């Protein structure tokens, strides 16, 4: 068993923000041990750096995230015309017959709606498919509509089911290629201090991750692989349950069953009690994907199979339905997003042992849309402090690639709610303290006590001693997962 000594570590107390005097930490195998052990094999001098538990992102779409890392980034576009222009520029160096894929556009505030015609002006030959930042919409030219099975589509702007089908078609890459890209984004994320993610990709995750862990370059962090309903029968038949290890590295385990109940905010498909100011035609309240009875029956089934449930709820009516279904069935798990929560729904959720899995960095993209779509109600959107005050456990994620898989960006936004320098804090009453924010990011670990898993990070500075607006610049000097250094800037 390997023994390692981390010299001159200043342990951060996440409750008080104080750092200890420099001390040595021993890591024996994959556990912390503060007992001096004689024959350490490896010594790393941290020179007084701050050491704290490693960070988690409890909501990523690993495959999409990897794909997005290699695609045209449209997240900065403020209009359809800007997207068209960027697409035109990137076509210059593009093989005409291979599809050009862009990601990250957000049309919620655009004057001119996306249409196939606009992209046909860029190219009538190269298939162009653009995927929205929240993944709930897609925009294609005529060549792409034909290539991917949507020939004759009236507008070329696809939402919900059609958008997901188009994404499935464009994302169909050889496993080895995608696995390599996935490895790339995970390795980059260890530099931000991530030691684990919950993968909520819509894929046969148990199979995909076992393959990745069996490869020559296994993933550098812990992975909890979620199960989607289309693979639920197979999972139950195999006896998979949440927390069960899926391979012998000990890093890969079964995550929750993922269930989607409504759409997204910027696509105006989140299921809401009030009508949207400017709704999608035919959907004044957004879209509801399943009736309460249907949701309850899935939750009962998951519960008896030993599976936690990660249930997506964004609009206030969807969140209320999700909370009620957890209460009714006694299922365990998380409400994913919990984005638009009225006080009564927060109180109801606080009665349950259900975690709110939230994505603070999505405030960057959603702030303007929320203020426009639900004027007067935005104080109920991302109500982080209200949920925490009610006693609800929060866990941070990014929903990457919807927002960057950067735990420090999420931490900063949750404590400042400052989305841009020109404006003040957005509903400052709902800011968390830094202590709260860090504890939402460590997968429930409060301290690196002897016997704890050696999942830790070393930081150049104490996050409690910098201006909150600088937290997003943080990264890890060293990241250790399961007793193994997976990233370090050591010379
Ligand atoms: Zn998601």
Distance from first to last alpha carbon:
25 Å
For the record, the CATH class of the largest domain is Alpha Beta
Q: Report the major sheet.
A: 8 strands, mixed
* Bound chemical compounds: zinc ion
| Percent of residues in helices | 25-40%
Structural class: alpha/beta
Q: What integer value in Å does the Rg equal?
A: 23 Å
* Number of strand segments: 21
| CATH structural fold name of the largest domain | TIM Barrel
Low-confidence parts: none
H/I helix tally? 15
What is the residue-mean pLDDT, rounded to a whole number? 94
Q: Structurally, how many domains make up the residues?
A: 3
For this structure, what is the CATH homologous superfamily of the largest domain? Metal-dependent hydrolases
What is the annotated CATH architecture of the largest domain? Alpha-Beta Barrel
Binned strand content: 15-25%
**Globular, elongated, flat, extended or rod-shaped: what is the shape?**
globular
Task: Explain the overall architecture.
The chain has helices spanning 62-68, 80-91, 116-120, 142-147, 161-170, 175-192, 205-213, 232-238, 292-305, 316-329, 343-350, 363-373, 384-389, 407-416, 434-439, and strands at 3-11, 23-28, 31-33, 42-45, 50-53, 55-60, 72-73, 100-105, 128-132, 137-140, 157-159, 194-199, 222-227, 252-260, 309-313, 333-337, 354-358, 394-396, 456-459, 478-481, 484-488. The protein is an alpha/beta fold and 491 residues long. It folds into 3 domains: 1-54 and 446-491, Urease, subunit C, domain 1 (Roll); 57-62 and 176-445, TIM Barrel; 72-170, Diaminopimelate Epimerase, Chain A, domain 1, CATH 3.10.310. Strands 1, 2, 3, 4, 5, 19, 20 and 21 form an 8-stranded mixed β-sheet that branches. Strands 6-12-13-14-15-16-17-18 form an 8-stranded parallel β-sheet. Strand 8 (100-105), helix 3 (116-120) and strand 9 (128-132) form a beta-alpha-beta unit. Helix 9 crosses helix 10. The radius of gyration is 23 Å and the shape is globular. The relative contact order is 0.14. It binds zinc ion. Zinc ion binds next to loops.
């Amino acid at each position: 068993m390997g023994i390692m000594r981390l010299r001159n570590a200043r342990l951060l107390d996440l409750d008080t923000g104080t750092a200890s005097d420099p001390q040595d930490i021993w890591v024996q195998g994959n556990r912390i041990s503060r007992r001096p052990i004689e024959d350490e094999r490896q010594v790393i001098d941290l020179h007084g750096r701050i050491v704290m538990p490693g960070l988690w992102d409890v909501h990523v779409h690993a495959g999409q995230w990897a794909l997005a890392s290699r695609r045209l980034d449209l997240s900065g576009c403020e209009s359809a015309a800007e997207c068209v222009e960027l697409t035109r520029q990137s076509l210059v160096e593009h093989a005409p017959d291979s599809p050009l894929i862009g990601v990250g556009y957000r049309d919620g505030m655009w004057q001119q709606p996306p249409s196939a015609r606009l992209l046909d002006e860029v190219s009538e030959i190269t298939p162009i498919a653009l995927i929205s930042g929240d993944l709930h919409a897609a925009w294609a030219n005529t060549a792409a509509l034909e290539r991917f099975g949507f020939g004759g589509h009236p507008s070329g702007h696809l939402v919900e089911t059609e958008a997901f089908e188009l994404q499935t078609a464009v994302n169909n890459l050889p496993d080895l290629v995608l696995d390599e890209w996935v490895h790339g984004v995970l390795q980059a994320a260890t530099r931000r201090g991530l030691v684990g993610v919950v993968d909520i990709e819509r894929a046969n995750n148990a199979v995909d991750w076992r393959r990745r862990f069996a490869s020559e370059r296994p993933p550098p962090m812990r992975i909890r692989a979620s199960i989607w309903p289309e693979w639920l029968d197979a999972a139950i038949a195999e006896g998979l349950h949440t927390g069960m290890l899926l391979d012998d590295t000990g890093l890969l385990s079964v995550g929750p069953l993922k269930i989607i109940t409504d759409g997204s905010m910027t696509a105006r498909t989140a299921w809401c009690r009030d009508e949207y100011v400017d709704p999608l035609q035919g959907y004044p309240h957004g879209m509801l994907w399943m009736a309460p009875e249907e949701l309850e029956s899935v939750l009962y089934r998951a519960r008896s199979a030993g599976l936690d449930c990660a249930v997506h709820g964004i609009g206030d009516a969807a969140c209320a339905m999700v909370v009620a279904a957890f209460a009714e069935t006694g299922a365990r798990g998380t409400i994913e997003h919990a984005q638009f929560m009225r006080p009564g729904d927060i109180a109801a959720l606080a009665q349950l042992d259900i975690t709110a899995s939230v994505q603070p960095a999505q405030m960057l993209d959603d702030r303007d849309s929320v203020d426009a779509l639900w004027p007067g109600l935005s104080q109920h959107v991302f109500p982080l402090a209200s949920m925490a005050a009610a006693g609800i456990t929060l866990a941070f994620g990014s929903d990457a690639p919807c927002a960057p898989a950067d735990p420090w960006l999420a931490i900063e936004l949750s404590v400042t709610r400052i989305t841009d320098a020109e404006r003040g804090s957005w509903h400052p009453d709902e800011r968390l303290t830094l202590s709260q924010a860090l504890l939402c990011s460590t997968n429930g670990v409060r301290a690196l006590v002897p016997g704890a898993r050696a999942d830790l990070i070393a930081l150049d500075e104490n996050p409690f001693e910098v201006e909150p607006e600088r937290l997003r610049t943080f990264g890890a000097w060293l990241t250790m997962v399961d007793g193994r250094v997976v990233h370090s800037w050591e010379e």
